[in-house]
Each structure stands twice: as C-alpha cells, then as structure tokens.
Amino acid sequence: MMQRLHDRSDRPAIDEATLTAELRALGIGAGDLLLTHSSLRSLGPVQDGSRAVVRALLTALGPDGTLVVPAFTPENSDTSPAYLRRVQGCTEQQVAELRRTMPPYDPQHTPAPSMGRVAEEVRTHPDGMRSDHPQTSFAAIGPLARKVVSDHSASCHLGERSPLARLYEEHAKVLLLGVGFASCTAFHLAEYRVPERPQREYHCVVRVRGERTWWSYADVALDDSDFAALGSSFERSGASVTTGTVGRAAVRVFPLRDAVDHAVTWLSTHRPGRRA
Q1: CB 69 within 8 A of CB 141
Q2: Least enclosed by CB within 10 Å: which of 29, 92, 96, 110?
Q3: What are the sequence ranges of the domains in the chain?
C-alpha cells in the first residue's frame, strides 16, 4: 500500500539534523541496509552539501545499518552510452586518442562522476568499501559493506554474482532521493532472472598484472529504457512504497526484494521475446 507523507517546500537551506529527521520519518531506521540513488540538487540548498547528506543517512541507519550506492564507471568503456555520446562527431584520430588515454579501472581511485556527489561522498569516505567490477561497482559503508561488495564478478554487471543479489538476500531497502524509477538499479537484477535473456559483448579498460589493457566479456544486455513504466506498474501493484519529501526532493522508499520480484513478472510480459 502506498503511503504519502506531507510535502514541504520553499524553505531555507536544510541542515543535517533536519535531513536525519525527515529520513527517519520516511521509515529509514536503525539497522537498515539501504541502497540509495540520489540527486543532491533536488534537495535544494543543503548546509555542508553532500557530506551532510551522507552523515544524515548514516545517523538514520545507526551503527548497525549499512549504506550502499552505485559507483558506476561507464567512462572507461567503449561500449557504454556515455562513451558513444562522447565520441559522436569526433574524427577517427580523436577517437583513437581518447581510447589511448582512457584510464584503467582502479577500485581505490577511479571516480564515478556520473553517479552524483552523494555517491562520490560514500565512495571516498574513510570507512567506504567498493566492489571490483570495472564498470558497475558499488560502494558501501557499514557492518554489511564487505559482504555486499565482495566477490563482484568482473563478468557479471548486476546479476547473481553482484552486490544486487546480496542486497536482495539481505532484504535491503531502496531509497530514491530526488530521482525516479528510471534510476532504480535494482530492476536490473530482474533482467538476469527472466527467461531468454539476450546477451551482448562489453569492452572496458582494466589493469592486468600492472599493464593497461582492453578487456572484453559477454553479459546480459542491460536496458533501463522502460524502467519508468516498470516503476509506475510497481507502485500501482499495491507494493509498500512510502513517498514524501526530504528537503525539496521527492522521495520513495520500498523493499528491494519486492521491486525485483515485481520486475521479473513485468519484464517477462512486456519485453518482446521474453515471455514466460
């Protein structure tokens, strides 16, 4: 059943204590395992910016809770939409130079600029841990961080050998903070659980025995183009989705497991060639 909390807008810069209180009012509590997708800008002015947001999340979760964010790096791949947009209109020489200078993935140092400032704050946190996948890593802080990010297979973006499967097993919650269902990474796990999964080849730059090299691997063909429609269906299904606001941002909170289970059924009937 969807729950809607009161919207509050047109107010000055929000502080950390208020952020924490509003997160708790949405049902984020001590001991939760929370996968967070966020837009800092959507919150409006925030005192101390992304640092305050992460501190508020960690305070709401308490010492027994774990915060998880995507730390994806499409910038080191020549098969990602980000790369294809970047090379559009470039000459062959410009493309060759770009490929020559693309840095290999380093879980300790490679930034994830497309994931936003809150995710970067988690990635660079002194207590943060990050998975090893060269394109779709996750970063986490908390007692379950190691369990979530360990053993992320380099040939499995977001399937059974990725942090998403561990989040499913551990009954994580999802927080969409100022972003919509189009950004809901959890739905990708369902793409691995439907019949007739199409595959594609991916390429990215990695470091092997100290040497920079291009690496290719086959995995499920990921597609988030219909995730907004999938999310609308999930909400209409009677799922436990809490909506409200934090700062000026529209927010949804829901169980990851419920979202994935609904997505498996929806994808099986709404994508050509994937009917159960």
Answers
A1: no
A2: 92
A3: 3-70+114-199+230-270
Q: Which residue has the tokens 């000026």?
A: 248
Collapsing DSSP states into helix, strand and coil, what is residue 267? Answer: helix
Tokens of residue 3, six digits = 């729950």
Q: What is the pLDDT of residues 174-194, one digit of tens each?
A: 999 999 999 999 999 999 999
Backbone angles phi, psi at 91, to 5 degrees: -80, 165
Judged by DSSP in three states, 49 sits in helix
Query: What six digits make up the tokens of 213?
Result: 């090299």
Distances (CA, A) of 7 to 21, 132, 205: 14, 39, 45
pTM of the model: 0.91
* Helix (H) / strand (E) containing 202: strand 199-208
From 157, 217, 166, 148, select the one nearest 191 (Cα to Cα).
Answer: 157
Give the C-alpha separation, 33 to 79, whole Å: 32
pLDDT digits (tens, 9 = 90+) for 91-104: 999 999 999 989 89
The per-residue DSSP string of 88-101 comes to TT--HHHHHHHHHH
Q: Would you give the distance in Å from CA 88 to the centre of its chain?
A: 26
Give the span between the Cα atoms of 275 and 6, in whole angstroms.
40
